[in-house]
Specification:
alpha/beta, 7-stranded mixed β-sheet, 12 strands
């Protein structure tokens, strides 16, 4: 597509109880509209599956744009956050009916990110414009040996915060006057869940995911299987209980009753030595995951990037540096740039600068 024919790109990024909406214009240099809607958690809980929320969130988005007086005819493309569909590669995909149906399947892990494709497609289709996802959570290119788990019936899948990882890697490389595809990164995104990945030539070749990597504010990370197995069959925990221990009630929350690192730091400042130990343990586990991923890059690591909301904690990042700073330089790039990453990936596809994949 010729650059002069590209007008606005609508970006939709659904979270568990939020929907971020941004319209980028002028070659993504400006923002024409921006909103972060926080949903009533009880309302969200009324829906039996993630996919069943689509119409509720779609109508909300269109209503907001209408009230803002925005002309939908200016939209050239719609992009949504990539979902939990297995087998995707990194980069961008144009959404078709096949992908839409797969993303809507109740068999997928019930994660709000899958709504990105559903919302983008359902908004774009009536407008006659293309819709995309970019850097899906599952969009990795794992080494074959990285897929081996130790149990023949189970193959490791890549699940990581790829969208923000790539955005930060591109930003860092640009600051050094380099192409990020010529560098080796270990990216660690720390939020409610923490994932780390090894990136070579712009592709994620191994990951430490939220279920086999470090503990996080609300996720257990990898735990000893024999002990976990005992919990599963002790007669006291249901399957739902175990799933919540893995994601929702694990990590810091399991030990300290809070998912907010600011609360934990206040405990530490108030002299809580137990809280200090748990917080350091989280940093220790992050560092061990980073060290493990250095093997995938054969020790040739240009930089370790610490990102995500939890990276604002100097106390935590300093502890991580203490344990793994010998591996490579550590760059702290807190927060996330997911909306910009989705828009810029889409712009590159529209301009033909990057491959557009089709499922």
């Amino acid at each position: 597509m010729d650059a002069k024919d590209i007008k606005d790109i609508l970006v939709v990024n659904p979270g568990s109880t939020s929907t971020k909406i941004t319209i980028f214009t002028n070659d993504n240099k400006d923002i024409a509209y921006e909103e972060n809607v926080i949903h009533d958690e009880q309302k969200i809980l009324e829906f039996p599956t993630v996919a069943s929320q689509k119409n509720y969130r779609k109508e909300m988005i269109l209503d907001l744009l209408d009230k803002a007086g925005y002309d939908l005819k200016n939209i050239t493309a719609v992009v949504g956050r990539g979902g939990m569909l297995f087998g995707l590669e990194g980069g961008g995909y144009q959404i078709n009916e096949k992908m839409y149906n797969k993303m809507a399947s109740p068999e997928l892990p019930q994660h709000a990110s899958s709504l990105g494709a559903l919302l983008a497609y359902s908004i774009a289709e009536p407008l006659g414009v293309p819709s995309y996802i970019y850097d899906s959570t599952m969009g990795c290119d794992l080494l074959d040996i990285a897929k081996i788990t130790g149990i023949s019936e189970i193959e490791k899948y890549g699940a990581t915060h790829l969208l923000n990882s790539r955005a930060m890697a591109i930003s860092y490389a640009k600051s050094k006057g380099k192409d990020y595809k010529d560098m080796n990164f270990i990216n660690c995104h720390m939020g409610g869940g923490t994932t780390a990945n090894a990136m070579r030539h712009g592709k994620v070749i191994d990951v430490a995911a939220y279920d086999d990597g470090p503990m996080a504010p609300e996720r257990s990370g990898g735990v000893p299987l024999l002990l976990f197995n005992k919990l599963c069959f002790d007669g006291k925990h249901t399957e739902e209980d175990m799933e919540k221990l893995i994601a929702g009630k694990g990590g810091l929350y399991s030990y300290l009753g809070t998912k907010d690192c600011r609360d934990v730091e206040k405990m530490i400042d108030d002299g809580d030595h137990y809280a200090a130990m748990i917080y350091e343990a989280m940093a220790f586990q992050v560092a061990k995951s980073i060290a493990g991923l250095s093997c995938a890059l054969e020790g040739k690591v240009d930089v370790i990037i610490l990102t995500g909301g939890v990276a604002y904690s100097d106390r935590l990042t300093d502890e991580i540096k203490k344990y793994c700073g010998h591996i490579a330089p550590i760059e702290v790039m807190p927060g996330e740039k997911e909306m910009e990453a989705l828009a810029n990936g889409t712009l590159r596809m529209l301009k033909g600068e990057e491959e557009t994949k089709i499922l």
